[in-house]
Amino acid sequence: MPERAWNTFLEGDNLDVLARLEAGSVDLVYADPPYNTGNDFAYADSFRDSAHADAATGRHAAWAAMMRPRLHAVRRVLAPHGAVFVSIDDNEAAHLRLLMDEVLGEAGFLAQVVVNLNPKGRQLGRGFATSHEYVLVYARDPKRCVLDASTHDTVDEDDFPHVDDGGRRFRHLPLRNTNKKFNPVTSPTLHYSLHGDPASGQVATAPFPGSVEVLPVFGDGRPAVWRWSPPLVEQRPDDLVCRTIRGRTGERVDVFQRDWLHRDGGRRKKLRTIWLAEEIGSTDTAVAELKELVGHVFESPKPTGLVRRILATMPDDVTVLDPFAGSGTTGHAVALANAADGGSRHCISVNCAEPTREGSNARNAGLLTVADITRARLRAVADRVGGGLSLG
Ligand SMILES: C[S@@+](CC[C@H](N)C(=O)[O-])C[C@H]1O[C@@H](n2cnc3c(N)ncnc32)[C@H](O)[C@@H]1O
């Protein structure tokens, strides 16, 4: 077992539990609060018959009143370099965005990610077959945040269609700068002649037998600039190739960079703000993952793939907090990530002793509260994946 267990579970109302955690002691928060769908969140009595005549206003106000102090508590425990991810759907997405602007500051907003957790789309009821929800991402302090919004796992091998004699995959990238902001007026030193032979592929800064002069041009024939300076071309001639291509203005000779696929994890790709079920799993995947470990005992778990993608944006020794742990997906994802990459992440999961429904699978399995479900899964994770479980 590692020195510090990978997982800790704390039972209780997260407002009370978070108050006991040290300020600034958490690097990453993933929160998946009740979405206010009408049956997942108990209204505070004061809102039920209060001055809020409009039921919808009262519903949102009650939810915001539940969330506001909890987001303040999250902000308090977050380290200055930390980040917070919150799952939400259309019921409260707009209100949560404003609430997070209020508590964490608008400047801390990093992204509103669309998460395609129900690829078939919701078939119940009228209207659209909604197939996505959201994850809002905020930095505790955008200037100090260590979040790196990139990943190894979205690099697609098929994007590197060529293979060299040694079996290394690569793709051709135009050596000319395709960004129109860079042109001979803005970057005059990068507008120069190269010399290449499209038959052999060879490229040089000076003419050689069989070479033709190549100037950088945009697709429409207007003058462009190269991305590499002449000294860089001289240093890395083998990473360049001269080819004849068919462009908008007919055939022309151009120079390309051989861009290699690095399987050692050196290459990272910027994360897009739409995360597809085929990349991160779906609610169905999540139910299957939970079923495998403890049974079908929770209705709306998240797939571990979603949380693992979130973990991949932060260093591998972070302390993670999930204040609405439910079935314990975050703790499971942390253990899987540590087992896969040798990291030393630590996850603190919190859930209250909300009773499970009479007659539900959980209740029939002897799990009387949601906290019992969280514990059962985290115990199973410690057995199967490792890393131990500490019960606070
Ligand atoms: C949407 S579920 C989280 C599901 C979880 N992400 C998963 O993958 O299983 C929200 C959870 O928050 C818990 N919860 C609601 N209010 C809470 C509170 N004030 N303190 C602690 N847990 C709470 C509920 O019991 C429920 O399990």
Notes on the protein architecture:
The structure is a single chain. Helix content is 27%, strand content 23%. The chain is α/β, with parallel strands linked by helices and 392 residues long. The strands form 4 sheets. The protein has a 9-stranded mixed β-sheet with strand order 15-4-5-3-2-16-17-1-18, sandwiched between helices. Strand 9 (194-196) and strand 10 (203-204) form a beta hairpin. Helix 3 (55-77) runs parallel beside helix 4 (93-104), helix 8 packs across helix 9 (329-341) and helix 9 (329-341) runs parallel beside helix 11. S-adenosylmethionine binds at residues 13-14, 32-34, 298, 300-302, 324, 326-327, 329, 350-352, 354, 370.
Q: Globular, elongated, flat, extended or rod-shaped: what is the shape?
A: elongated
Mean pLDDT: 92
The CATH architecture term of the largest domain is 3-Layer(aba) Sandwich
Instruction: Give the terminus-to-terminus CA distance.
Output: 18 Å
Query: Which structural class should the secondary elements be placed in?
Result: alpha/beta
Beta-strand segment tally? 18
Strand fraction band? 15-25%
What about the largest sheet? 9 strands, mixed
CATH class of the largest domain: Alpha Beta
Number of domains: 2
Helix content: 25-40%
Secondary-structure element series: EHEHHEHEEEEEEEEHEEEEHHHEHEHHE
Numbering strands along the chain, what is their spatial order in the largest sheet? 15-4-5-3-2-16-17-1-18
The Cα radius of gyration reads 27 Å
CATH superfamily of the largest domain: Vaccinia Virus protein VP39
Small molecules (ligands, ions, cofactors) in the structure:
S-adenosylmethionine
